């Protein structure tokens, strides 16, 4: 069962970028831990700072993968194209954010992608990704098909 963890712009700088908000650990450092915690899933990881590359990746996996855990970074608040891509696919998507976007600037309160996701997990730093994967794990016994 393949799950894509998809990170958008500036998330390659995790660990160095505003550590008070995003934490001190890089995603590469965290990923092996996540893989060990979910041995039933094949966790693929892709990060890009480019909207088109994120779109291509969503198109590539969005009809075959079991799930997508998506932190779209700032594109969360701006990208109609990414929202349209999530509307087009049938793999379920969980939106994640490291920071609690509801407690930050007003422009971060609006997610354009949220309506095309199963739900959103925000504010638990890197643990947001683990919580999202627990959703997919809980789905396994019940799962009969994709979202439509
Ligand atoms: C973020 C929140 C976004 O508002 C911001 O632009 C990011 C990271 C988060 O994980 O908290 O780049 O998605």
UniProtKB/TrEMBL annotation:
One of its GO terms (biological process) is amino acid biosynthetic process. It catalyses: 3-dehydroquinate = 3-dehydroshikimate + H2O. Its EC number is 4.2.1.10. The active site is at residues 22, 97. Pfam families: DHquinase_II (PF01220). Substrate binds at residues 71, 77, 84, 98-99, 108. It is an enzyme of class 4 (lyase). NCBIfam families: aroQ, PRK05395.1-2, PRK05395.1-3, PRK05395.1-4. Homododecamer. Catalyzes a trans-dehydration via an enolate intermediate. PANTHER family: CATABOLIC 3-DEHYDROQUINASE. This is 3-dehydroquinate dehydratase. It comes from Hymenobacter elongatus.
């Amino acid at each position: 069962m393949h799950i894509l963890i998809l990170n958008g712009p500036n998330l390659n700088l995790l660990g160095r970028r505003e550590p008070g908000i995003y934490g001190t650990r890089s995603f590469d450092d965290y990923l092996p831990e996540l893989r060990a915690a979910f041995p039933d899933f094949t966790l693929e990881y892709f990060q890009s700072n480019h909207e088109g590359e994120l779109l291509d990746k969503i198109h590539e996996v969005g009809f075959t993968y079991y799930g997508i855990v998506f932190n779209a970074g700032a594109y969360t608040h701006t990208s109609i194209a990414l929202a349209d891509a999530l509307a087009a696919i049938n793999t379920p998507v969980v939106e994640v954010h490291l920071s609690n976007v509801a407690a930050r600037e007003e422009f971060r309160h609006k997610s354009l992608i949220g309506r095309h996701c199963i739900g959103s997990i925000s504010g638990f730093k890197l643990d947001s990704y683990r919580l999202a994967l627990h959703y997919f794990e809980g789905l396994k016994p019940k799962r009969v098909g994709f979202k439509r």
